[in-house]
Amino acid sequence: MPQTITVKVKLLPTREQASILADMGKEYISVINSLVSEMITEKKSTKKTTKDVPGHLPSAVKNQAIKDAKSVFTTKVKKSKYTVIPVLQKPVCVWNNQNYSFDFTHIHLPLMIDGKAKKVPVRALLIDKHNRNFELLKHKLGTLRITKKSNKWVAQISVTIQTNESTGTKIMGVDLGLKVPAVAVTDDGKTRFFGNGRQNKYVKRIFKSKRKKLGKLKKVHAIINMDDKEQRYMKDQDHKVSRAIVNFAKDNHISVIRLERLANIRQTARTSRKNEKNLHTWSFYRLSQFIEYKANLAGIKVEYVNPAYTSQTCPKCSERNKAQDRKYKCKCGFETHRDKVGAMNIRYAPVVGGNSQSA
Questions:
Q1: What angle do CA 291, 294, 297 make, to 5 degrees?
Q2: What predicted TM-score, i.e. pTM, was given to this entire model?
Q3: Residue 148 is inside which H or E element, if any?
Q4: Is 323 helix (H, G, I), strand (E, B) or coil?
Q5: Any residues with CB less than 8 A from the CB of 327 and at least 6 apart, and which?
Q6: Distance (Å, whole) CA 306 – CA 265
Q7: In 10 A of CB 243, how many CB atoms?
Q8: 3-state DSSP call for residue 20?
């Protein structure tokens, strides 16, 4: 079955190319906003072609802008019955897969030079010590999206990969948390703890302390850079944990990974005053999504279950008990780590339809 993911590639355009990309990004968004505004006025989708659309953009890019405008009108405006009037602001430019090529060192794409569309190579930097992006970009490439993030140019390339879903029946439950980022338990009892919650909280305290000092000095840009650095750290940790979980599943021939459905996790998660800030800044949703897409690439199905009482119910006798700190004890004599109980129960909890909701 096909799996579509987005691969990010750093771009190193020349000064002239960067200026052109910036102008095209602004023009692209302007065209979309103009077309959406017209469709709202006329109460119907546009029938315009690239010849009818003004703007200093290659025809292929104009065509993509028309498609994006129609999508915005259908999914945002019509779906909300004209109560939502979106206005895109962040400059971005999109090319379909027939109008660019990638040779792992350069992206060759049409840019507007002296009023004409000319295909030019823009240098790409593919740094990946694990060679994951190299392998992913060997598959079928989709749309190319170029934008500027934190003063760096980034190409986002959609990639479609054919995966073979496992036909086995071995199930693994995974419990996500703060003190222990993840605990996995297979249906034959093998257990693995992933990540280091104490280290994560320590790093976040360091970032918070530095931001406080910078705030007193009124160094706004330094604070923004510090926020970006913290987010990169958190995202990197999620990648490492999710990769380790999927590797553990592959080693144990797991065919289904089950996770908690994350709706209302901030209202139901076990926490204390000292953990409250971490709970509201740590992305459980992102970690679950990383696990899902990496699992799908490995042919492993991901299912979401109802999280109710998964950390309170005894896996042995089904009695509900509240854990004391990290230890779970039941009157029947069952005793183990609290998060392990959650993972054990998630394995066989009722599966809910659809994907998890944002945490």
A1: 145
A2: 0.69
A3: strand 140-149
A4: coil
A5: 335, 337, 338
A6: 11
A7: 16
A8: helix
163 by DSSP, 3-state: which? coil
Instruction: Give me the pLDDT at residue 278, please.
Output: 46
Sequential DSSP letters for 226-294: HHHHHHHHHHHHHHHHHHHHHHHHHHTT-SEEEEE--TTHHHHS---HHHHHHHHHS-HHHHHHHHHHH
The Cα diameter of the chain in Å comes to 80
Task: Report how far residue 245's alpha carbon sits from residue 292's, in angstroms, rounded to the nearest whole number.
Answer: 10
Q: Of 5-14, 113-122, 268-277, where does mean pLDDT reach its minimum?
A: 268-277
Contacts of 182 (CB under 8 A, 6+ apart): 174, 175, 176, 193, 194, 195, 241, 245, 287
CA–CA separation, 52 vs 27, rounded Å?
A: 15
Mean pLDDT of 312-319: 90
Tokens 């000064």 belong to residue: 15
Q: Do 53 and 68 meet the contact criterion of CB atoms below 8 Å apart?
A: no
Give me the amino acid identity at 265: I
Buried b (16+ CB within 10 A) or exposed e, 125-139: eeeeeeeebeebbeb
List C-alpha distances in Å: 94 to 57, 62, 75, 330: 11, 9, 19, 57
CB atoms within 10 A of CB 206: 11
Nearest in space to 284 (alpha carbons), one of 307, 314, 301, 300: 307
Neighbours of 149 (CB within 10 A): 12
pLDDT score of 164 more than 80:
no
Tokens 């009482």 map to which residue?
309
Using 50, 70 and 90 to split pLDDT, how confident is the model at 282?
Answer: low
Q: How many CA atoms lie within 13 A of 130 on its CB side?
A: 6
DSSP codes, 173-222: EEEE-SSSSEEEEETT--EEEES-HHHHHHHHHHHHHHHHHHHHTT-HHH
Tokens for 220? 């706004």
Q: What is the mean pLDDT of the chain?
A: 86
